[in-house]
Amino acid sequence: MKTPEPGTESLPWRLRSDHLQWLREQSALQLRFGRAFAHPTGGAAYLDDQGEPDLSQPVHTWVTARMLHVYSLGALAGIPGCAPLAQRALDGLIGSQADAEHGGWVNSRGPGEAIDDSKTAYTHAFVVFASASATEAGLSGAKALLDDALATLDEHFWEPDHGMHRDSAAADWSTFGDYRGVNANMHSVEALLSAADVTGDTRWRNRAREITTNVLGWAREGDWRIPEHFDPSWTPLPEHHRDQPDHPFEPFGATVGHGLEWARLAVQVAAATDADPAGDLVEGAIELFERARIDGWGVDGKEGFVYTTDWSGQPVVRRRMHWVLCEAIAAAAALGQVTEQAQYEGWYRTWWDHASDLYIADNGSWQHEFDEENVPSSAVWPGRPDLYHSFHTTVLPRLPLTPMAATAMAQGMLR
Using CA atoms, how far apart are residues 190 and 266, in angstroms rounded to an integer? Predict the structure, then answer.
């Protein structure tokens, strides 16, 4: 599709007072929509389409951590009622979601006595990220949680010989799975950047840069389509889940949204590590953005991003996920800020228009999934489990590229 023109005016939307006010209103609406998340057994409940707890779902630690992060940001923004809700989520991570016997955090608990007590880097990355935000928000127990989460991620998941995190372990840490994945490392980058801001320990920032450099290297070799799945030696597994192409965490092929998310993160890593703005990280971000946009946006004759493509760029799963659109908007904002090129402003406006037209309800919540005809669907993601991606989309364009959101908001940088 043709690159949109932002218009004759030169001021980007993210610098316009009315657009900033609209983003603030959307943030507030989302925080109101999700405020019933507290689960009666502790942690955050998976939310249904109306924002009510779906008690048939287990309490996922990653959902609890995401809601802790979101409501910590709400507290840092000065939104009344957010701090107590964030504390409820934090208490769940300290209490019911923690593994008191073996350390670390379980993947999920319930309903009833059911438990998935295996350990994953994905879950632990979100605990680091959320506890960093909670520390900036001044929540009780947050700094101790952050220290524990960082130590656990470092001790059990980091593979220094490869410069990446391995993916999963048994409950007692006695064995580790053979699968290695980029998804957990992507969220680790965000978490480690935030942890470095909060703790002042540059080791975590350098680690985030190492991971990002590795991923950009693999992407460059694959025409900027990121290989997601690997064996224990970090050799790509391009056929992984070909028989389960719409897997919610490990889909076959290239994931369009991750190309966009990594583009945004690469820009943030460059800013956080004082990289040359014209250096490899920003250049890689530009390439990732273009590949994901060309492969994913409107390729089947209808507006929207397809979920995945094969390694030649042909769509595989054509369903539309809200988080992909969220990451597209955030990536366009980040690249627009660092390059000042009009094309990114054009895409930023186009994708916000699409979100407003199709995804965003009057109460501010986002429909999480559509089918290939842009009809609401729940084949991969039933309900509206958390606010992480959609809330970020209303906050990140109002912030500088560094420091990360929680620290920037604690320092009064939110517009």
Answer: 10
- pLDDT score for 113: 83
Beta carbons within 10 angstroms of residue 271's beta carbon: 20
Residues in the chain: 415
Residue 219 CB contacts under 8 Å (≥ 6 apart), including other chains:
225, 226, 227, 259, 262, 284, 287, 288
| CA nearest to 33, candidates 300, 320, 385 | 385
* Average confidence (pLDDT) over 50-67: 97
Distant-in-sequence contacts of 106-112, Cβ < 8 A, 24+ apart: 106/61, 106/171, 107/60, 107/61, 107/62, 108/58, 108/59, 108/60, 108/61, 109/41, 109/43, 109/58, 109/59, 110/41, 110/58, 110/59, 111/55, 111/56, 111/57, 111/58
Give the closest residue to 15 by CA, choosing from 412, 397, 404: 397
Q: Cite the active site residues.
A: 258, 389
Average pLDDT on 230-243 reads 97
> Does residue 174 carry a pLDDT above 60?
yes
Q: What is the pLDDT of residues 310-351, one digit of tens each?
A: 999 999 999 999 999 999 999 999 999 999 999 999 999 999
What one-character DSSP code corresponds to residue 153? I
Task: Give all domains of the chain, ordered by start, each with its CATH number.
Answer: 13-410 (1.50.10.10)
Q: Which amino acid is at 344?
A: Y
The string of pLDDT tens digits covering residues 353-410 is: 999 999 999 999 999 999 999 999 998 889 999 999 999 999 999 999 999 999 999 9
SS3 343: helix
Q: Give residue 87's region: left, alpha or beta (phi > 0; psi -120 to 50).
A: alpha
DSSP-assigned letter for residue 154: I
Nearest to 212 by CA among 253, 265, 249: 265
CA distance 115 to 112: 9
Cα torsion at 360, 365, 366, 368 (round to 10°)?
-160
Overall average pLDDT of the 209-232 stretch: 98
Residues in contact with 11: Cβ distance below 8 Å, sequence separation at least 6, in sequence order:
none
- Determine the longest span between alpha carbons in the chain, in angstroms: 62
